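User: two proteins, same treatment. go.

Assistant:
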Amino acid sequence: MKDVLIYTVDYCPFCKKAELLLNERGIKYKKIDITQNEDEYRKKLGDYYDIQGKVTVPQIIIGGKRIGGFDVLDKFDRAGELEKLLED
């Protein structure tokens, strides 16, 4: 299974939804809470993943590839494609 990384802030409802979805599916992930250095991390994420415009959270990375936020994660899950996305 590919590594899953999620960047969050502690006040974000979509971050909590993403974590809940991953937990309900039994998907292990590493969480990086950027609340304390939010502006710095958002800039770094934007630069590293070439994100145009405002960098939102959560940012979900699967196998080193940024898939986006909760809406995209949920879309993959509802389509039954999340497990396939996680396969090595």
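Protein 2:
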Amino acid sequence: MMQFSRVTVPICFLVLFLFSCSEKLIDGYVDATSYFPGDSMVVFLNGRAEEQDYSLSLSDISGNQIEEYQIKLFAQAEIPADGYATGFGYKPTTSIVVPDLRSGIYLLDGKIPFVVKSKQRKEIVVVYASNTINAYNEAGGKSLYPIKDGTVKASNQVSFQRPIGLPWHSTHVMQWFEGVEGIDVKFICDRDLDDYDSFGDCSLLVICGHSEYWSRKARVHFDSFVDQGGNALVLSGNSMWWQVRYNAGGDLICYKYFDNDTISNELERTVMWRDTSLHYSIIESIGADFEYGGYGLNDDKGWDGYKIVNAPDYIFGGVDIEQGEILRLPSKECDGAPLLFSSDSSTVTLDNVCGFYRYELIGYDLISRKPHSNMAWVIMQKDSTSGTIINVGSTDWCAKAGVGGKDGDKIKKITLNMIDYLLGR
């Protein structure tokens, strides 16, 4: 069993570090989401005024400073009206050769994140939810969603070339991973899933947080990995809900309405993956989906966590919880599964509508959206030779409510148990 140590940087300091704004630096971004050590990273910064000798810090996600660069900072021109879609158009401030760092999430000036990858094989590959955080990002005035007051319509295109923060649904687990001993891990971003070689030789693929926006190529590669015997741990909710694609400039495209997408290939149209026109069921890939799920923080008949119906030792070993008890996890959005209840609702099982070789329910919650909406924690295996997937169905397993919540220590231990199990330990 792997052991883990506590991250040494206090959370209160980390929050201040990540979200305090330099008085001299307004915002910025880099020219890509992920890099290998030795790559050249172009940095675009917007200063309040010109400064000849500005200290630009490089830190890990836990707030530990690694390097400092002396650069010339200057104010950028006004961003274009469509900067949310085509990029902010900043002039390059500096170029940095990515140091020889271990794979992980790093930040410039505490607020400009990027992923450092590795060309070495690692047992575990963790996917940074770069598409989802960009989809919700309103920098420049628009995102893929209407502004809440209804005055600004959604865009069908958002650029990565603008200020984008850390994914709020998975930052806590990535900080925790920094302090876990015995995990042979590397990180990639969503776009890297389009390259099978970025993860195809690993033993375990981990999907974190709120992994909502997937390209077709990424989904094909994910399924191919599992079909060839690779295992996956889905610590995410509302997963694989929208199809996206990237244009030639690398911008994220998602029309969200079938009739509005003008691409000729119907299978590439950026609609919900559940749309029958795409011929690509979510639940057949990961055992649960948002169609059976919904919203866990609204009024519902559940417990703001999982009622445990099956407590195998390979998941709950060393955890003080028994069948019938509740593992607390308030979850904003949830993926569910087809559940079958006994006449008195005393027992619940899975309806194996997809004919999986293995399909087991670990726990569930009753949530709001439809009469039978639920959050389902499932184990599935498509056939006797395919890999095993464990899917917790929650956007908050990796967030403050999960690994950082009231049952956070239990969730961390369970996460390590699931990793050990899927690695065959």
